[in-house]
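Two proteins were folded this term; both appear here.
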Amino acid sequence: MAGATKQRTAHDRAGLSDELRGFREVQRLAYECAETVAAQLRPGVTEREAARMQRDWLRERGVRDWFHLPFAWFGDRTAFVNFKIPLQFFPTGRKLEPGMPFILDMAPVYRGYAADIGYSGSLGLHPVQDRLMSDLRPHRELILEQVRERRPLREIYENVERLMTRQGYANRHRAYPFGVIAHKIDRVRERRWSPTAFGFGTQSLRGLAADALHGHREGWSPLWSPYRFSDHPPQPGLWAVEPHLGFRGTGAKFEEILVVTDSRDPGESAFWLDDDLPHVRRWAEEKAA
């Protein structure tokens, strides 16, 4: 942890400080929203209401654009049970019950900087999800280590999946469109009117499409998937990474920004943007205990 903090400080002293701080600010804002809304959840709240709570909280703090609007998943929907089509990801009337796990997921754009985060919790104790969250720690470590080794994204994806299998879990990010574990994010131009389409910000979608076109010409993709188009080394930039574990109808994940650079120094070639996040603090407390 200390090494990662030192690396961020070194980057702050370099020319990237303002940009990285901008992305870190919106990521922290999103996680603050998740923690605040999670603390307000009560029995009977629906997924739609939880999504609206996130949206309202962020709008009150100046968010006017989105990579995607907030999601909320309750119960077995945290593991994407029987998800077959993209529409099933959108919030429903499912009500939260005592002891039920939940995931809050949001991707706000703030002052032109984007973030995409995932927060896992439960209404009361849920030992299975607690174990899932603890077992996500080695995935964060594995991803960083292998990105620094410049292994192909497809190979890293497969190694993450193998670790999940050894742990006895199912890979639930395979249920996402294109089975992605991550996607690139970029700056977004600030505008007075920022429309959404099918829950996604049109400006962010255009940026992702432009990255896809540019990457196709150069042999890389902005989507980190198990498919051939991700069979290339990590592309420099910012990646929103979200390993998602499932076990018997319970799911858990984190999602945060990984910074990839073109540095030849392994320690500088990739680093997590921020180590002061809820899941990272949780693991530090578990280790200390």
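Next, the second protein.
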Amino acid sequence: MVTVKELIQIESNKPELFQCGSSACAGCASVLALRWALKALGPKTVVVAPASCANVYIGIWPKASSAVPYVNMAFAAGASAASGVVAGYEALGKKDINVLTWAGDGGTVDIGIQALSGAIERSTNFIYACYDNEGYMNTGTQRSSSTMKHTKTTTTPTGKGMHKKDIAQIVAAHDIPYVATCVATDPQEVYTVFSEAKEIQGAKFIHILSPCAPGWRFAASRTTEMGDLAVKTGIFLLWKQVDGELTVNKRTLKYLDKSKRLPVEAYLNEQGRFGSLRKDQIQDLQDWVDRRCDKLARRV
């Protein structure tokens, strides 16, 4: 992972490929992650964004924040469109272009999962990044299958009834060259995983937890804190699988020890989307976290 000193140098020396003036909400973690992803990938990058917040915060025509080609695409077609872009460049003999699908959880875990599975099964040479804000935030905060259990959304006003789908593990089961997770609020992690993915041939997948201030109902000034709490409580696990070999991030490795993890209440109580959870619901989420941490610990 890049050091803080290296990150400061990167900040100064690498061009800004996602510039100021976007239409993002205050405190948007997705924009922060995209900015650092593009710094890692460089100017020879094409972004394909299926229907999501990313179609809005790119900017309003005729202006845009992206300094690289940016293709707005239909909800279900993020991976399919990227496959076409890759094939087009390969037909022209251009093999040094980074093709990035930048999709929300709705366009990945739900509507786009078929196209994603097909593209990575075909070993398409692209990077698919899912910025996971755990809901359809662009259309009114509806639940997705990546929404945490007991979350109150506009379509689950009394709380969602099932745990979120583990998209990173589903993709890892395809046995592709590179799968990684990171938190959008940590530029070091984002820059590192995209730099690694850039150097690998074949299909790459990056799952990014992206705290959403209006959707999760916390103050925009606390976005970074929410990302940090997700890791410290074990809600979100940091790991990567490269050519079938699992490596756990040092931060998550520490918190696989339950005695060092914060209780889930430290995360839940800071977000209005969880409302007033009963003790049994909190325990349900704590048990879910403990099971996932124990399962990962057994694999290490």
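The first strand starts at residue 45 and ends at 50. The mean pLDDT is 96. These notes refer to the second protein only.
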